[in-house]
Structure formats: C-alpha cells, structure tokens
Amino acid sequence: MRIKVIASASLLCLGLAGCVTTPPSEDPVLIKLTEIDERLQKVERLTNNESLLQLASQLEEVQREVREVRGEVETLRFESEGAATRQRDQYLDIDRRLQSLETGGRVTGSVGAGTAAGVAAGAAVGASVAGGSDRDSYQAAFDLLKDGRYDQARAGFQQFLADYPNSDLAGHGQYWLGETYYVTQQYPQALPEFQRVIDQYPQSRKLPDALLKVGYCQYELEQYPQARAALEQVVQAYPESTAARLSAQRLDRMKSEGR
Fold first, then answer.
1. Last residue of a domain, one of 74, 106, 138
2. φ, ψ at 131 (rounded to 5°)
3. What is the tens place of the pLDDT at every residue in 180-194?
4. How far apart are CA 177 and CA 231, in angstroms?
5. Do 220 and 191 meet the contact criterion of CB atoms below 8 Å apart?
6. What is the mean pLDDT of the chain?
7. Could you tell me if residue 23 is inside a domain?
8. What is the DSSP secondary structure assignment for residue 75, as one 8-state letter?
9. Is 187 within 8 Å of 221 (Cβ atoms)?
10. Which positions ≥6 away from 254 have C-beta within 8 Å?
11. Distance separating alpha carbons of residues 7 and 256, to the nearest angstrom
C-alpha cells in the first residue's frame, strides 16, 4: 500500500513538472490566443484600410467636382469677359468713328438737301426687308449708319420704330436715330431723340449712352448747367460703364474750360 502511494505521488509530480516545463510555443492555450489576436489585428487593418479607401474615394470625388465647377466658372468668366470686350470694342469703334466725323467736320451728303433723298432711301430699305422681322429692319438701318449713309439710316430707323414700336430693339433704334442727327451736328434735333430713349425706354441697355449724348448735345448747345447735370448722373448711376468714362472726360474738359 505504501508503495502504491509513493508511486502515485511520483506520477503526480512528473505531471506537474511536465506542465510547468511546457514551452510557450507549444502551449495550446497560448497558441490559440495568439491566433485570435492575429486575426483581430488583421480584421482591424482591413477595417481601417476600407475606411481610408472610402475617405480617399470621397475626397477624390469632391476634388473632381471642384475641378469641374472651377472649369465651368472659368468658362463662364471667359465668355462673359469676351462678350463684354466685344461690346466695348464695338461701341468704342463706332464712337471713335463718329467723334472723328464730328471733329473733322466730314459729313456724308448735304444735311438739308438730303432729307427727301433720305426718306426715299428709307422707303427702299423698308421694301428690302418687307416680310422680314424686326431684327431684319433694325439691322438694315444699322448697316446704313455704319456705312455713313446717315439720311438713309435715319429714315430706316424711323420706319423700324413705326413698324415695331414694341420690339426689344426699339430702345436701340431710338438711340441710333438720335445718332444720325448727332453725327451730322444737328444737335437741336438730336437732343429730343436721345431724351426719348430715357423717357420711353427706361429699361434699355442704351440708357447710359443716351444720357451721355443728352449731355453732349446740351454742351454743344451751350446749356452747360444741364450738360453737367446729365454727365454727372451718368457717372453716378453707371460708374463702371464706358459712358461714365466718357462723361468724366467731358466733365474734366468743361472744368478746364471754366464751364
């Protein structure tokens, strides 16, 4: 009996000793824990990578949209500036040609004797655009103005306004009708025509130019206080316009002249 107890104790001690001396690399519990830890780390890495990928994708999409918006803005800016430049250049070219005629005194045709011929030419213009649109009639008269055929252009604009009083181009037509008088130095006749643009077409884009020419006509007619008031109104109401720049120049000239 004593021998059996000793043997059992010896076996127990050997078992305990075996457990104590088992290396960590062979411990099944530690191995299992290590595997679980590695799997968790892998899942965490995948999760983090997916989040980063999503954020990167979203950021790239936002950047793409920003580039598209910037491109559209640049396109609109270019088109807007291009249109403004073309309009300004066209206006300055016409105004320069008209002022050259004013200062040089070169006027096509006789102012007085050409009236009847102008009316007849205007009738021809009206006939040439018969059945056309208001824009056709307006363009025909405007082409005559650009060609320096002022009597014919005057008759053409008068016919255009009679035929299409409610046209979107009526304010422009009224303005250029005034120009046909102004360029031939008929300031008493030009003044009321420009004034009609202000009175009858207050929404017209030619309003600043009409007000400018009212001031110019009043200056030529030696109505200096009225001219100064009109030109100052252009500068105050339309500060960024070409008409405002020209008004400021005329005001400086009047100041130097003591007007």
1. 106
2. 85, -5
3. 999 999 999 999 999
4. 21
5. no
6. 76
7. no
8. H
9. yes
10. 219, 224, 227, 228, 231
11. 133
In terms of domains, do 246 and 121 share one? Answer: yes
Is the confidence at residue 57, as pLDDT, over 90? Answer: no
Rounded to whole angstroms, the Cα distance separating 17 from 11 reads 10
Residue type at position 222: E
Tokens of 150: 């002022």
CB burial of residue 154 (10 Å; 0-12, 13-18, 19+):
buried
Burial of 215 (0-12, 13-18, 19+ CB in 10 A): buried
pLDDT band at 238 (very low <50, low <70, confident <90, very high): very high
Please check whether residue 109 is in contact with residue 153, taking contact to mean a CB–CB distance below 8 angstroms. Answer: no
User: How many CB atoms are located within 10 Å of the residue 174 CB?
Assistant: 26
Cα angle for residues 81, 82, 87 (degrees, 5° grid) = 100
Same domain assignment for residues 154 and 84: no
Q: Residue 10: inside a domain, yes or no?
A: no
Residue type, 23: P
On whether residue 45 sits in a domain, the answer given is yes
Q: How confident is the model at residue 78 (pLDDT cuts 50, 70, 90)?
A: very low
Site of tokens 């056709």: 136
**Domain annotation covers residue 94:** yes
How far is the C-alpha of 22 from the C-alpha of 167, rounded, in Å?
104
pLDDT of residue 16: 44
Q: pTM surpassing 0.70?
A: no
